[in-house]
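Entry 14: structure prediction run for Non-specific serine/threonine protein kinase. Input pasted below.
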Amino acid sequence: MQILGGLATAKAAMLLAKWLGNEPDLFGTLPPEAAQLVFMNHLGVLTQEIGSIDWVGALLSMATKCAPTIAKSHEQLAQWALSQASLQSFISDQAFFVSNYSRLLGPEIATPERLEALWKAIFSSNSLAQLQNAVIVALGGTFASAAEILLKQTVYYTNMWGKMLERRRQLMTMGANSLFAFLRHHDRGMRTSIGTVRVCLQILDLLAHHQDIIHSILENGIQSTDVSLWVSVLPQVFARLSHPSRKVRETLIELIQRIGKISPHTVVYQIVVGASKQMLMDAETEDLVETNDEIAQDTHLEEKSLMFECCRRLEESLASFYPEMVSDVRSFVEELQKINLLLEERWVFVLANIDNEMEKRLTHIRAESEKTLKAAHLGEKERIELVQEKTRLITNSVFELLDDLYERTLNRTSTSVNEKSFIDEHKEKIAAAFETSRANRANPEKAWAPFRQLLAALIQKTARRTNSTLQIEDISEKLSKLNGSKVPIPGQEAIDFAEICYLDRLGKTAWVLPTKTRPKKLILIGSNGKENIFLFKGQEDLHLDERIMQLLHICNLMLRGAKELQGDWPLYEALNYSVTPLGARSGLIQWVIGCTPLFQLYRRWQNRQAQTKTLLNRKAGQATLNNNAPLERPTDMFMKKLRASFKENTIAPEVYGDRSKWPKTILRDVLLELMKETPNDLLAKELWMRAGSADTWWRVTSRMARSSAVMSIIGAILGLGDRHLDNLLVNLDSGQMVHIDYNVCFDKGRHLRVPETVPFRLTPNIVHALGPTQIDGMFQQSCQQALDVFRTGKKVLLTVLDAFVYDPLVDWAAAHDHLTTSAAVGSVNVAVALAVYGTDSRAAGARPIARQMFAVRVREFATPWKENKIELTQAIQHLIATINYEVKLDVQSPLEEAHALQKSRNEALQRMKAAIHAHHQIMKNFRQLLRALSACDPRFSAYTKKYRERFADGVVKAHEAMESIPSNFLLAITVLSSVVETINDVYDGLLSLDSAAPIVPAQSSTISPTNFMAPPGFEDTTPGEQQKQQQNLYARSVNRKVEARLDGRIDGNEPMKCFTIQEQVDQWIRSATSLSNLSLMYEGWTAWV
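Run finished. Output tokens:
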């Protein structure tokens, strides 16, 4: 077919499509003579070709044929086609479906919820087997016959599904082909743009979610694209290697092999680390709650096994082309893992973490012992036995872990000078501590005392050490001898393979930073002779940091590609750096050169103050302070003022030990006092003094304001926390603000011991460094512009985050630390277990004993639990009878009789309340265990759900009905009757959880896919294979929070209200600068600086 060609025609078609997309009614306003145009004559033909009467799609399709080399037209057609393949585009069909099936199924079955679920089943199922399962879930096992009618006895339902599936297949095929056409015709001068990233992410999303519909289209398209386009989305590509579909994995393996052939430096670390046995073994340490549910327990391991197998194949493939590179990288990673924690660091790290945990456990033991010894329903012998058993369970995992640490560190041959030195110096002391401890295991306080003394001695020795440097030859002989390797220096992904720099050797010295995880600053000397500084960090998962760095890179691409920001100066950008994970909890972080931590500026001021005070004292003839005395830490400064304020306001001493009781007014006063004592222009003066002229100063402060604004908005969207002064760096010459350490991200800061209360850091010193207008000028304007760009590109950001939801390498365990460090469930922190066991699979032996503790609880409380069941049942029945009697009486009852009835009802209600109170007193001994075990055992999760929905919610609802004005007695009777029917299940069900009966999957229906035939062309090609990747539920909730913020919804406000960009920015700024919020921040965050 001949089509009127030309760039002008294509642009006109795209513009008209945009108008009609925004205002569909515009088409009716076209003049009659428009129908005579050649331009319009082709639209009807094109409409038939694409199988739609949608003029927008027809116009976009025409644009791609008029000017095939315009990449933008292909992307717009793809977006239209994929949006038409979504659920929203079939709303008109849904009304017809609901009308028909309401009559067919009847009112009992055809509730609005079930009809909605049946409609979604048609749309979301890509095979007949998926349709069957979705229908059964939608109707529930109770209505299996209705499911059979839909799937077997009528053809309309399956035919409707088949037609919709074919329509979706056509649209997705068009969308996928258009996406690949965009990649073929994009600007070759730009290897990576936000457009190519956006399209590559969409293709990956189609492959992961719809490969069973259009796999061949996607496979052929991916094979034909330029591999350099995929480098920016490699984290998403690797995340999908755990996909359950073999076809998806094979497609991605082939893509990575092509990338590795041309640019091996971009994939070698991910492949080598993913193919190491360590990744598989580390997975076993993450499920720290004991369970009999093998399916739930093995899901994560299975995903990692799939990724391990894929990486193993990729490693073999890459080694066939670059054997020396693969071998050298593998050796380099293994040697770095060995110095992750040196022996002294490992002992201090483990003992310090366990000391805090042991204190909680000892307190817990004392409370448990006191409670058990007072239990009148238990005999004296049984009370003593229960106390001993609980003591053993609560402390056993700690002492077993220490025993293993001793065996693995001291009872083996040393492999380095550093290890030999530690063993020679400390083995006898540690052995003596173990001997004393083992002799007192029956008394946990005495058993832990020698380890506490050992920890104090090790910390004191570390504090006395003035030299924080180590010689590489003392900690790793192999690393010290490394020379002329083929290890690519990390962080060169954007450089062509021919131009990359290799690791020639390591600098002779490593610097140990005095932080909790003891990271080591290393110098990697490249083959070009230049020094590259990296931080080797352990005991933290850096996969999350790596993903955040990629997200910042994509944010920068979005900001550079925004038309409204073109030509603006300074640039809108968030400075990012290289992060290379080398295992489950270690990796290399590129050192940010030329930047100064804000804490260093604050420390300099403190030093100047101390020196000034010394000089003044000398002039006055007073005794001078010790020049070598350490400067006062921010925490000590805060606490000193807090104690003084408590004393001044006569606050009880016991309040000081309970942070939750600290008066907010006093916290605010302490903050204001510290702000008054601390200059608010420390940073502003540094920027002024560095600037050689007013023009330079203006440029520096402008860049400071803009870079701060961009990172503030990104931080607020992502829930970035832990923005203390050491994690904010500034280049004093350029004014560029740089953030580091993204481990406390996605609102983790809100769940710290001292919850964070601000969206980003905007304290006095930052405010005064933003230029003459401070917040109200460039900073606020830049915040609004950045948020506008991110809102517009919401889909891209959410697609990037979507990979987090499925990535088995990203560790979300920190979000659930309350389950893995609880004395009540007897577990051990994951980081501590890894510090002891490293990559050894025996770390799986460090599992908690929550199930054993649950059995002890059942033994301890079974008798009062059964007695409470009888009392609560009788109390509720008595209340129901009393209310029924009162309702049946005539309204005109004498006043005296009415008062008597009300008194009788109140007495019955009080009896029920007393029984419920006793119920909760017993239940609180099980609640934490139930919560922990529900995360891994479906029997416990099913019980918890049933308890909440059928018992607890009913009791609350009945109470509200009786307390309402006027009282709704009929509703209360109905609800309480339902509660009585479930009491046996609730009480007996809890006790039955103690049994270790095998879990048999429920058979929800007898319908089999073989009972009915699929329409021609819709047979299930992979009947035994799962088609979709398992989601990480916590990561999914994170994604929803980010989406809400990009929609304009603000935490703590009306959940459905969407704020404008200006309103959202103003709200965040008010929250960040609020004295009430800042006063609640942890004192180490130094909110006054």
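Notes: DSSP finds 41 helices and ten strands in the chain. Will compare against the previous run tomorrow.
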